Prior knowledge:
By secondary structure, the protein is α+β, with helices and mostly antiparallel strands. It has five domains: 1-148 and 928-996, Rossmann fold (3-Layer(aba) Sandwich); 172-185 and 836-926, P-loop containing nucleotide triphosphate hydrolases (Rossmann fold), CATH 3.40.50.300; 212-294 and 764-818; 387-422 and 609-663; 431-597. The protein contains 25 helices and 17 strands. It has a six-stranded antiparallel sheet with strand order 2-1-4-5-8-9. A six-stranded mixed sheet has the order 10-14-15-3-16-17. Strand 14 (931-935), helix 24 and strand 15 (962-966) form a beta-alpha-beta unit. The model is unreliable at 62-66 and 161-165 (pLDDT under 50).
Amino acid sequence: MRLHRLDITAFGPFGGAQTVDFDGLSAAGLFLLHGPTGAGKTSVLDAVCYALYGSVPGARQSGQGLTLRSDHAAVGTRTEVRLELTVAGRRLEITRQPPWERPKRRGSGTTLDKAQTWLREYDAVAGSWKDLSRSHQEIGEEITQLLGMSREQFCQVVLLPQGDFARFLRADAEARGKLLGRLFDTQRFAEVEKRLAERRRAAEAQVREGDAALLADAHRMQQEAGGAMELPELTPGEPGVAEAVLSAAAVARSTAREELAVAHCRLSAAESAQAAAERALSDVREVARLQQRFAQARQRAALLEERADAHRGAQARMERARKAEAVAPALELREAADAEHRRAAGAEARARAQVPETFAEAGAAGLAAAARRAAEELGGLESARRAEHRLTELAAERAGLDRQERADDDVLAEAESWLGEWETTRADLQGRIESAQEAATKAEQLAVQREPAQKRLKAARLRDQLAGDTEEAQKRALASEKRAIQARADWLDLKEQRLNGIAAELAANLQDGEPCAVCGATEHPAPARKVAGHVDREAEERALAAYQSAEERHAQEERRLGVVREALAAATAEASDTPTEQLDRQSEALERQYAEARRGACGLHAANEQLRHAEQERERRTAVRQEAAVRAASRVGHRERLDREKATLEDELTQARGSAGSVAARAAQLERRVALLTDAADTARTAADTAQRLKHADARLADAAFRAGFDTPQDAAAALLDDAAHRELQRRLDAWQSEEAAVRAVLAEADTVAAAQQPPADVTSAERTAAVAGRRLRDAASVRDAAARRCAELDRLSARAATGVRRLAPLREEYDRVARLAGLAAGTSADNERKMRLESYVLAARLEQVAAAATVRLQRMSSGRYTLVHSDDRAGRGRSGLGLHVVDAWTGRERDTATLSGGETFFASLALALGLADVVTDEAGGVRLDTLFIDEGFGSLDDQTLDEVLDVLDSLRERDRSVGIVSHVADLRRRIHAQLEIVKGRSGSAVRQRGQ
């Protein structure tokens, strides 16, 4: 990973837009970020981390969202961080904008814009940037995958912030393993462990499943064999399961075959006995059937003899009905003619009752002639009907003219009344418009006064608040000053105590024969001894650090007090000394006046609109009045024409109506008369025709009854049968003949007669004998089937068990092999003496490489004293971990890294980080770390160690790698030429690059 360019806008202490050219700084291999305390050195690293991961490192993680924004930024400037870098051979540009509470574009107040993120990639072929994504989640996953590190791991390996750069050195085995696993991509070894464990579980499940299936088959064979098979208690997976199951199965099969042979013999004997019993039962049942058939035939013959007289009477009745059927057509014809004549005579009587009495005795021809005369008179009334209809239309038209005249009178009256009030209405509307215009002018004047009054009120409220904040800030500044003075006194006291006991510290390093560092003597007869409460260097350094921290807090409180005072002075200058309550009352009175003026001005538009509508209404009513006058003049002539036409039509109708009330009434009288006379003539002709047809039907009926042998037509009618009675009588005759023939045939059968002469058959005894034989046969067959089924099932289960045993043999071998490999990879096998998992073993090898690479630089930084080594001592649950120890060449002992002092911890962790970067870069497929940052820590080094550390860092340019040092140590500015200076000012910080 190599950084190229960083653009910062309104971020942290940077109020404006700032640009960092990392390509220029990295050309020297080693560059310095320096500036006064609080200027924003660490904020540059925060911006890099925020661009990559969307959050800042370490304890500054709370500075997210709106708090990332610079307090020095202009109101309309949005916070933005843009980083251009190369990672995994791809040149990318990441732009992030945190949430922004900006002023609303319309109205007062603010609105919150959501966070924005862009990711672009440079296309070398096209020579331009192309967009990849705008999703926070997608960009975060892409960057994390390309870098191969989480934010915390990035801060430990690449971006070493204040207080966190030694965390990897002192991390436990689990945390160290997570980082190494991500950097060296050892997930595949963990997958191998997981895959072996899964294969072991799968193979074990298959073996257990196979043994369970064998035991299930064995238990089923035991159930089939009953007590003939003994099976020991076995568990799936236990050795010897297959042999025990196959042995028990062989014994069960042999016993079952012997039982099957015995069952076959018993079944053959039962089948013979059952066949003989069935034949005897069939013979007895046939004799009983014939005897019963003969007895039933004798009974049916006796019943036929009893019904012989009724049969002969039915035959006679059927013969007389057949003769009467020849007379039936004539009877039906006579009845139809009689019914028709009665209907025609009734209709004639009803029609003659409706006509006038003068036509009561007239014949059909007279009635028809009278109907024609009435129809001719009806046709002459058509002209009178049209005149009557026109007269009705004239009346309606005259009524419409009257309604129109009344409506025009109302319109004229309303228009005159409205127009008479027009001048008053116009004057009122003009007055309202003038009042609204005056209110609008006043509202504009008050609006100019509102903003200054509101600003003064806001400044006064801020002035009151800052007055209290100033008092609180003064109290905190005094308290911090007291704590700093006390901390300095404590440090000086401890320093004095250490100087008093320095002889004991020097004496601790004396050895016989070695010269004393103070006097040069090689003999040490009475070396000083440490007394109780001795103050060592570490205690003095802790006191000094506490003093420096207290002094820094005091400086911060003083700066905060200055800021509050400046803000108080600005607020007082704007609000003057006027009390806040007075300004509040003035602002409220101004707001009330402004609101009243606004309400008055709101009616201006409405008043103008009402005046415009009123003028339009005046024009409309004037036009309506003129139109009504024109219509009144035209109605006079129209009414005179209607009156003349009405008089002419009334004379014509008087002649046409006659004695009737109207032409329609006269026409209705004539229409009814024509209808009645026509109906009476038609019914008279129909009655005469039906009387003639009835006379002919009577003659034909008398002739047909005589020829059929009946004395009168009434006798023939009585002899007739309807269809139901005829069918019933014929059915009775046919049933008697069928029964007689069937009885005669049965009594003539030789077998039936012979069986009737034998003794009665005993069917019950024969059935009982056959049932006993059948039951014995079924029992024998059941026993034989059960034995055969038992043999077949035992053979099938035995064959399946043998197949299962053959199939399980390679599975059991596979399980044994996989279980050994899985235990070895998981560190649970006895063959794995150190109980190390496969991934831990690989990571331990990588850690050894990292320790070796770090030792090369650590020895130079420590003047050959310290060496980093990997430790695989067991830690927790009896497993070996990823330990890291330091070997002290002065003592020859290996000790934990936690025992190093502050300065030693700094350059040891620095060497470890550089060694880790070397190994990751050299590892095929690893992440190349071309840019590293070191935030503080150089102040704990002496001059000689500092020179050695800088020499080591300067040698990194040989691997085309750059290291950025973030420090305010003055000596570094003389030793490092490429610098990025952070300049602090009232309007925010700015960056300056030099020595590129």
